[in-house]
UniProtKB/TrEMBL annotation:
It holds the Pfam family FAD_syn. One of its GO terms (molecular function) is riboflavin kinase activity. Its EC number is 2.7.1.26, 2.7.7.2. It comes from Anaerotruncus massiliensis. This is Riboflavin biosynthesis protein. The keyword Flavoprotein applies.
Amino acid sequence: MRVFHTIAEAAPTGRSAVACGFFDGLHIGHAAVIGRAVERAGEAGLTPGVFTFTIHSGHPARKCDNCEIITETKKFHMLEKWGVRLLLSPDFTDFSAMPPEEFVDEVLVRRLGAAVVCCGDDFRFGRDAAGDVPMLKTLCAARGVEVDVVPAVLWGGERVSSTRIRRLLGGGEVDTAGELLGRAFGYDFTVVHGKRLGRTIDSPTINQRFPADFVRLRHGVYAAAARVDGVLRPAVTNIGLRPTVENASAVNSETYIIGFSGDLYGRAVEVRLLRFLRGERKFPSVEELKRQIQADAAASLPVAERYIAEKNGK
């Protein structure tokens, strides 16, 4: 997959079918739009492409700040896996001042070589989000570009959106969020050193720090699965401030990978949250914390094993 991080460096090698959107969660609604572009590209011998963006230096007024559902690295990996071969992902400030006409001419036509543009029915573009889908159709038609509008995907009678997923994650409803994402919610941050307390209570854990701009999760304990060396393993994860042993200010993910021992420091380990088990709380002693970790592991094990069996069966 060819990846461009600025508009100025993007250069098409041919005509493309381009999916346009922020695609900040890569949920099932986003998958429908991107899948349509890949499908249209295959039908017409075009390059399947995506126009998206980052919000490191600014963000649209209607988009959530400081709440990424998926890291950029994971996002790019998934797009390539879905069949995307051309990706333009500039920072929002690289194009936010463009009038709608300039966005179509400079970004879609010149830089991406779009013959087909696929988008959701709520797509906005151009300075101050002045452009909508009817305007996009008009501008593209005048330039010989087809617009394919993909209807909203509904789940439970309600539109699937990243905002909805963030709300679910903030409430601990990771299983429902996973349905809307089309996959278990997870992250793969680097394992860092903690207080090494887990080793002293026979429950060695891995610690991962959440960036300030990552989605807010309900603090507490989750049934989980962790991928180590390509193998999914049952786990139990605590999200929070570790009040019993540290009472930290930064949100921490602490995962006990059941039955695993090994040095994972400095490695990016994928952790998938499967079900919320209980809220975070402070224990009066380390001994009581030890007993609770083992009880949490026992509660997580059947959930994780069922999930792993389902994934291995596909």
